[in-house]
Amino acid sequence: MEALTEVREKIGNSRRAFEEVKAEMSRLVVGHEELVEQVFIALVCGGHCLLEGVPGLGKTLMVRSMGEILDLTFSRIQFTPDLMPADITGTNVLTDDPSGKKVFDFQYGPIFAHIVLADEINRATPKTQSALLEAMQEQSVTVGGKVHRLESPFMVLATQNPIEMEGTYPLPEAQIDRFFFKLLVQYPNRTELGRIADLTTASPPPPLRKILAAAGVQKIRESVREVPMAEAVKDYAVRLVLATHPQGGQNDGGARLAQRFVLYGSSPRGLQSLILAAKARSLLSGRPNVSFDDIRAAVLPGLRHRIILNLEADAEGITTEKVLEEVLERVPEVL
């Protein structure tokens, strides 16, 4: 009985905190409700996000506001072709100690923050990109043979501009797979544009209220992994991932587009993202177990960047979204 009470308390606290975060974000960030929810889900799952959208849609404002509301440190790195790995991670600097001796002192780079916005990550060289991606994977930075641990929670939100790809360095598929979600930042509608104009051309709003701290985010992270999942729901997630492969699901009504247009399907990281995101969505919705709807809601953001299409798909105008929509349509919840 005590265990059940504790579970209900964790669910209630997580849901209340999330609702407060959304309400506070809406004071400054117009629209993007689903985007805010998905970024928060990735944060409490310990993942990173790749944001794709044209400039000026409020990506930096959203990320900075979330860091402020959650009382987490925030840094922004503008990626350029001349950016070096040391500009991200930091470097050893020769200084004088109190006794007058010359010593190397490590100067921390902007990667040492809870939330890091990597703006236009595809503009930097692969060498610089790999320094960031290594920190994402290992949660640490090694300089001069010494390991420096990153703060926890740690999250990278990298942005790409889809309309300016010439002269850039696209991330390799293996590196894109390290991102928990790939999120598309949509253009605001007429009502949202009007509210943006009101907010940005009037007096500044009052400071944002702090809802959570690092310890609070860590508690929700721990609670996410404790959310139970029925075997049938887990099997549904497994079959969805297998159906993204050209050879997957051929005998059980699998997706025909995947069989024709996909070169490589989702990796096992895709399945991990589906399950963790579904657990987080269930927890933040105040439900004690994962539903099929939770799995379906995570398919597009969790798998769209993990599928590699062939040349025929490009010629036919087939996108990963079309493939995943057919996967969701054709794969049954229960066999």
Describe it for me?
This protein is α/β, with parallel strands linked by helices and 335 residues long. Strands 2-5-8-1-9 form a five-stranded parallel beta sheet. The model has no long low-confidence stretch (mean pLDDT 86). It has helices spanning 2-26, 33-44, 59-69, 85-89, 126-138, 173-176, 190-201, 214-226, 231-242, 256-261, 268-284, 292-303, 311-316, 320-330, and strands at residues 49-52, 74-78, 90-96, 102-108, 115-119, 140-143, 146-149, 155-160, 181-184, 262-264, 308-309. α8 (214-226) crosses α11 (268-284). The protein has two domains: 2-217, 3-Layer(aba) Sandwich (Rossmann fold); 228-330, Orthogonal Bundle (Helicase, Ruva Protein, domain 3).
Measured as a percent range, the helix fraction is 40-55%
C-alpha termini separation: 35 Å
What's the mean pLDDT score?
A: 86
Beta-strand share of residues: 15-25%
Query: What is the structural class?
Result: alpha/beta
CATH-defined topology of the largest domain? Rossmann fold
Which properties best describe this structure?
single chain, 11 strands, Helicase, Ruva Protein, domain 3, five-stranded parallel β-sheet, 14 helices, globular, alpha/beta, 335 residues, Rossmann fold, two-stranded antiparallel ribbon, 2 domains
Would you kindly provide a brief summary of this structure?
The chain has helices spanning 2-26, 33-44, 59-69, 85-89, 126-138, 173-176, 190-201, 214-226, 231-242, 256-261, 268-284, 292-303, 311-316, 320-330; strands at residues 49-52, 74-78, 90-96, 102-108, 115-119, 140-143, 146-149, 155-160, 181-184, 262-264, 308-309. The protein is an alpha/beta fold.
